[in-house]
């Protein structure tokens, strides 16, 4: 939609973005169905249980350095020390190593520190003689020893349900002894794009036809390890076909995402069809640009999100609202996306009205580290190529008309 279409005059009737997001999150109840998986298969999934450490972490006093363990009480006064080396202990060794009073033990990183030993001297600080070590820095008690439980005590929480099991979480779960974890079952997501004008990319185009970009953009947006994705493909603006597709999708999916057909045109069938099928539908007008029309619906166990057809509008509404709804439905805890402080790289003028998410490119950074943003074309809701050139969207306040070079902007980085 071009700038200055006049429709922004109605902006006061619109829901704000936080209001729309709140409504969306409230509609997106988690599916709450779980399964137990071996840890390796749980990577990329949503954790469905609170996890506590099953042992103290670390589980025993151990050496933080390769070197020599000793008892500081053996050192006496003076500034030069020499001790015999009475044995060796490596990571994985079990059993208590005995060492006579006044002797050191060769010790390797991760090895249990035998009882009574209270310091480790790094090998770099020791001169090694035949069966003895000499060093001239007095070690402090506790030096280079990782004490049992200093990280976490057995029973302390390491992760709470609702987090994504990424590399750090997988590592923490393994360290806490979880070989098997409860995760939410994959969210069944079905998607399709509506419109008679749509052709598969590369197919010859007749008059009035365009290549279907939303289908591929949505596939990339929705394909997550915690999602079981079903691509229904394009569907013509034929009410019978649309209704059949929607009905089947509602019967089989936890979440249905479509693009197009949610506005007020004669071929914008989705709101009416959804209601006719016995679903509860809500077409919202959101005070954001692009992405004004946005539809939510519920029918049986299915949640429906109808995104606007314009590709940039669909992307932005997905990023700002839809993605949070999908995440919540899959059981992920909601985390607001932080906006970064940035500055305008030039003077810009715009028509005030709706809060705008303008594709923007980072030119460079200011001396205090803020990105300097070039705002890309003002008429862009169909220009998906512009989105691909952007590093993110600048969030322009509803009432801002003139934005001066150097002015503060908020930036949602892709
Ligand atoms: N009288 C009004 N007309 C419109 C309004 C309004 O408030 N009053 N809102 C405008 C805005 S803003 C948007 S956004 C669009 C949203 O309309 P729909 O969701 O119903 O989308 P369509 O009309 O089906 O398509 C809009 C546009 O996007 C192109 N499109 C659709 N699907 C795809 C696809 N898969 N790949 C690429 N491009 C696609 C489609 O050809 C249209 O050009 O409504 C405005 N109108
Ligand atoms: O302004 Mo529309 O919402 O093109 O997205």
TrEMBL record:
Coiled coil: none annotated. Pathway: Cofactor biosynthesis; molybdopterin biosynthesis. One of its GO terms (molecular function) is metal ion binding. Its EC number is 2.10.1.1. SUPFAM superfamilies: MoeA C-terminal domain-like, MoeA N-terminal region -like, Molybdenum cofactor biosynthesis proteins. One of its GO terms (biological process) is Mo-molybdopterin cofactor biosynthetic process. Residues 190-328 form the MoaB/Mog domain. Pfam families: MoCF_biosynth (PF00994), MoeA_C (PF03454), MoeA_N (PF03453). The keyword Transferase applies. Its cofactor is Mg(2+). It is an enzyme of class 2 (transferase). It catalyses: adenylyl-molybdopterin + molybdate = Mo-molybdopterin + AMP + H(+). Keywords: Magnesium, Metal-binding, Molybdenum, Molybdenum cofactor biosynthesis, Transferase. The keyword Magnesium applies. Belongs to the MoeA family. Catalyzes the insertion of molybdate into adenylated molybdopterin with the concomitant release of AMP. PANTHER family: GEPHYRIN, MOLYBDOPTERIN BIOSYNTHESIS PROTEIN. This is Molybdopterin molybdenumtransferase.
